[in-house]
Amino acid sequence: MTVQPKFTQAQPVILDEAPVVLRFAGLFPQGLGKFKMHDERRGGDLDHVDQELSRLNQVLAGGPGWQQQIRDEIAEMRQHNHQEHLRALKAKSRMKDARKLEAEGPADPWRSCSRGPLREGIITVNKDWFGGAGLLEWDPERVSAFRKTAMSFLLENFPNGQLRYASAHVDEEAYHIHFVVAVWTEKPSANRGHQILLQASENPLIKSYEHAQDLAGEAFETIGITRGERRAEARRQARAEGKPLPERRQHVPPSK
């Protein structure tokens, strides 16, 4: 029998203010299966999860076939971009290059990158803002306010289908929302034709981490959650003044 963790706290505390936590991580399409497996609590690190509560986790955006839809779009754009590139080369009478491209076959519809063309994210706040460690300690009104604010923020800032999936987890110490973003952008050129690429940085929040934190701070201010520390700004100022740089903050998972 597997013993799952229980979250207990003798003296629940509800913070009036706490910084919103918004993080992004790169994701390759082949990692979607692993993401789904962990999201559904079928694998991955589950040591910090109370699996008796996992049935209460809630899908907030995205239907059952959202992952396959992304894969289908990638396959379609792979072919589309290949044909467009061939058309553009032949239009310029670059037949040698066209024959080489035909032999190579279609390429992935994104530019080479180490992080992956998709983004997975998490949005949460210190567990004490909800009331303590775990579902039994949380204030339901605060959980509801956080969920509504978070989803409004995500839908507004990842419009036109960019937000592919979001799920709320209640089986860890802090309530949090996982999400996946796919950003398609058009890149027409005379040499390659009308290319359609996955490029996360086309979204302003992903392009600028500071901008993302600013917007998140503004969105959550209405429910008493503040912006995170301006660490990048502090590092720039310290560098300009010749002072020691503040230590870079390490990512802390919801379980901690």
Automatic annotation (TrEMBL):
The record ties this protein, via Pfam families, to: Mob_Pre
Q: Which top-level group of life is the source organism from?
A: Bacteria
Q: Which GO terms describe its biological process?
A: DNA recombination
- Which GO MF terms are attached to this record? DNA binding
Q: Mind telling me which InterPro entries this protein's record contains? A: Mob_Pre
List all Basic and acidic residues biased stretches.
Answer: 227-250
Q: Where is this region: Disordered?
A: 226-256
The record's section on Gene3D superfamilies has:
3.30.930.30
Q: What is this protein called?
A: Plasmid recombination protein
- UniProt source species: Leisingera caerulea (Phaeobacter caeruleus)
